[in-house]
Amino acid sequence: MATPAAFAAQVLRGRWLMAYGSFLIMSAAGATYIFAIYSKDIKSTLGYTQEQLNTVGFFKDVGANVGIHAGLFAEIAPTWLVLAVGAAMNLGGYLMLYLSVTGRVRPAPPLWLVCLYIAVGANSQAFANTGALVTCVKNFPESRGVMLGLLKGFVGLSGAIFTQLYLAFYGPGGGGDTRPLILLVGWLPAAVSVVFLATIRIIRAARSPLAVRREYRAFCAFLYVSLALAAYLMVAIVLQKRFQFTRAEYAVSAAVVLSMLLLPFAVVLREEAALFKNTPEGQSSESPALSAVTTVAAKPAPPEAAPAAEKPATASARLLRALRPPPRGEDYTILQALVSVDMLFLFTATVFGVGGTLTAIDNMGQIGESLGYPPRSIATFVSLISIWNYLGRVAAGFASEALLSRHRLPRPLVLAAVLLLAVPGHLLVAFGVPGSLYVASVSIGFCFGAAAPLILASVSELFGLRYYSTLYNFAGTASPVGSYILNVRVAGRMYDREAARQGAVAAGKGLTCVGVRCYRESFLVIAAVTVAAGVVTLALAWRTREFYGGDIYAKFKEARSSSNGNGNGEEEGVVANK
Q1: How many CB atoms sit inside 10 A of residue 344's CB?
Q2: Smallest Cα–Cα separation from 226: which of 189, 261, 175, 202?
Q3: Contact (Cβ atoms closer than 8 angstroms) between residue 132 and residue 21
């Protein structure tokens, strides 16, 4: 007879609680997207110019996106240790930034030290992504597009979630001092990661055909809950813009958000209950004992017969052999992937396509200020970007997976369409049409969000999952490169140049720029390079059309069929050692 204890043990060891824990970690891992809310306080309290503030924003982007070291660390360390390191970095980096901005550190730290603080805090996001996101992709390889869309979608919602919690915990009715928000983004993500340290891990087990069929329906249930959360946040943002909320009303709104974040746990219980009915008491085909998970090794390949009288290879021949890539979709080595033309195209498109949207997001506070929008509207822009960022991620994840499975449409082709869709948003910022910043926030937020799962899924499909932890983080380094070029060197310098010109005429305004000209030239440049990035992505789609024309998940289906026959759920070529 089944016992509650046996069911509880299955839930704690199952893949679905692991997925839910990953969703919560991701919902607290997007603190870098609300930089525009508190950036004005960094600028005013530390006396920075716009170029100096953009430099801080650049190092924030470097920390958030440069995670090769996190990927390499994850190749040798257990997942719980990866998450623990990320939690410590998040708390330490943002706490020091908070102490600096509030004047508790005397004398005021120099610019390079502030950049170091925010880079360390933001770099925790790379560890959280590597620990949670990469683990989920390896646990659900046949649903990676959907899984990436959901995970990245919760990251996209995190900005709006943090805004609601900040207003309830710290903020007065209409906004104001945003420095406590830095403290919130320091302790909350660290606490969530610590709670799920033992839950996030690789789980390799045989899955029944029933479990496979239910998998997509479970993901749809997670999607519906997250859509309801996004809809509520949208309504809350609109109401908070139109009416003056009290502290108690903000607290009620935050309580609703927290309650909705707990709803997906019902999906976990439903899926595990369905699996529990088909398993003996205390056992689960979905959740083997931890010792079994960590000791199952990949099936050894049969030894190859040594070729007769083979001449010793020269150093150059060995190098060429090491660089010669396998067929697309097979497991590339790290070096093979880094020197491939496909990776070059993806990296270039991310630098100039995603880099442009990231520049717009980081400067949204100053853009709104220069165009004369009130502070509450600027907070609305940030929340709109967060919500449409989420919608872009889940839409791209689910839609690209459906187009791929039904019509064999290359994922890079969808990415090209997304990048080109961001161009009108950049042009609206450039020309400063009255009231258009609301539309631009929606367009830029959606496209920035949609690009993320498409790029990450393409990396996993083209180069395999064996070294995905490292390759995933390498692809992420393209965003800060684009941010430095377009944000610091282009937008920041052009803003300061226009502000200096205005300051010569109107004394007392310092380096605060006012008017459409502050960002016109820089966003015309960003629009042009985004078009170029779309063209590069179209070239990648053409190169990979034959690969996507076949069944890219065939090897996973074969491995599942084999595992159902012999009881071994370990995927060939991947050792579950975390």
Answers
A1: 13
A2: 261
A3: yes
Identify the CA nearest to 429 among candidates 378, 484, 367, 489: 367
pLDDT given for residue 167 in this prediction? 83
pLDDT of 279: 67
Residue with tokens 């015309």: 524
CB atoms within 10 A of CB 5: 10
User: How far, in Å, CA of 166 to CA of 178, rounded?
Assistant: 8
3-state SS, residue 520: helix
**Residue closest to 245 by CA, chosen among 151, 160, 164:** 164
CA distances (Å), origin 489, targets 359, 493, 496: 11, 6, 11
Residue 1 DSSP SS3: coil
Confidence (pLDDT) at 158: 84
Distance CA 155, CA 198 (A): 21
Bond prior to 288 in cis (omega within 30° of 0): no
Query: Are 361 and 495 a contacting pair, CB within 8 Å?
Result: no
Tell me how far apart the alpha carbons of residues 254 and 167 are, in angstroms, rounded to a whole number.
Answer: 8
Low-confidence stretches of the chain (pLDDT beneath 50): 1, 173-175, 282-309, 504-510, 567-578
Q: Which two tokens stand for residue 22?
A: 């990953």
Four-residue CA torsion sign, 409, 411, 414, 416? negative
Phi/psi-derived region of residue 515, left when phi > 0, alpha when psi is between -120 and 50, beta in every other case? left
User: Residues near 326 by Cβ (< 8 Å), separated by ≥ 6?
Assistant: 332, 336
Whole-angstrom distance, CA of residue 184 vs CA of residue 160: 13
CB distance 578 to 135 below 8 Å: yes
Instruction: Determine the Cα–Cα distance for residues 98 and 117; give it in Å rounded to an integer.
Output: 9
Q: What secondary structure letter does DSSP report for 109?
A: P
Residue type, 58: F
Distances (CA, A) of 256 to 164, 193, 221, 262: 10, 22, 19, 10
Q: Residue 12 and residue 174: Cα distance in Å, rounded?
A: 42
Q: Which amino acid is at 269?
A: L
Q: What is the dihedral of CA 521, 527, 528, 533, to 10 degrees?
A: 150
Q: Can you tell me whether residue 478 is helix, strand or coil?
A: helix
> For helices 79-101 and 35-46, what crossing angle results, to 10°?
40
pLDDT, residue 211, reads 63
Give the global pTM: 0.75
Long-range CB contacts (< 8 A, 24+ apart) of 298-302?
A: 298/570, 298/571, 298/572, 298/573, 298/574, 298/575, 299/568, 299/570, 299/572
- Residue 367's pLDDT is 92
For residue 289, give both structure tokens. 């004992």
Contact of 577 with 294, CB cutoff 8 Å: yes
Tokens of 15: 């893949």
As a whole number of angstroms, the longest Cα–Cα distance in the chain is 85
